[in-house]
Design goal:
With 186 residues, the chain is mainly alpha-helical. 47% of the residues are buried.
Length: 186
């Protein structure tokens, strides 16, 4: 059971960091529900796909997962940087409300943070619990960590200002670069 819990927490860390970055950006409160639900669902679903695909998809997933995650995270992080750079105060001095996020953005983030879960799903037969237990743990732990990360990001973002969206964008780009480097050096 402990190995399933450790696997779940390991897989949840990317989603937690991305949730914290979104919280830093001071986005809409609905993201506290949307991000954990999507991240938990995608982590669990991609793990299930990896488990079901078995050996056939394993080499393909491992070959390309770091490139796909890198591309998605750099694109989304870059957009956050551009949005932060463009953000400013209108003549009346009131800060601009953040632009609403799109479903495509949420799905892109969920996919980018869960691609490694497909590769990890290949190891589920080695975990000494039923696969459905491991998949449930992966989803629940990811959702809980994502919510916690988002709340922590919001707290820091509210205290330090809306320009922290740039830091959130840099965090996403950094995660993407780290995933690419890890994938290339395996």
């Amino acid at each position: 059971m402990w190995s399933a819990i450790a696997l779940a927490f390991g897989l949840a860390m990317d989603a937690t960091a991305v949730s914290a970055a979104r919280g830093l950006a001071g986005r809409r409160p609905r993201e506290l529900v949307i991000l954990p639900a999507l991240f938990g669902g995608f982590q669990s679903g991609m793990s299930a796909l990896g488990w079901l695909a078995g050996r056939w998809a394993g080499p393909y997933i491992e070959r390309w997962e770091h490139w796909v995650a890198f591309g998605l995270l750099v694109a989304i992080g870059g957009k956050m940087l551009v949005d932060a750079w463009r953000a400013g105060r209108p003549a009346d001095g009131e800060p601009r409300a953040p632009a609403p996020a799109t479903l495509a953005l949420y799905l892109g983030l969920a996919l980018a943070t869960s691609i490694d879960a497909a590769a990890a799903g290949l190891t589920l037969p080695l975990v000494p619990v039923a696969p459905w237990v491991a998949l449930t743990l992966i989803g629940l732990v990811t959702a809980a960590c994502s919510a916690t990360g988002y709340l922590a990001g919001r707290l820091v973002g509210e205290r330090l200002g809306p320009r922290l969206a740039a830091i959130g964008g840099l965090v996403l780009i950094g995660i993407g670069v780290d995933l690419l480097v890890q994938g290339l050096t395996r």
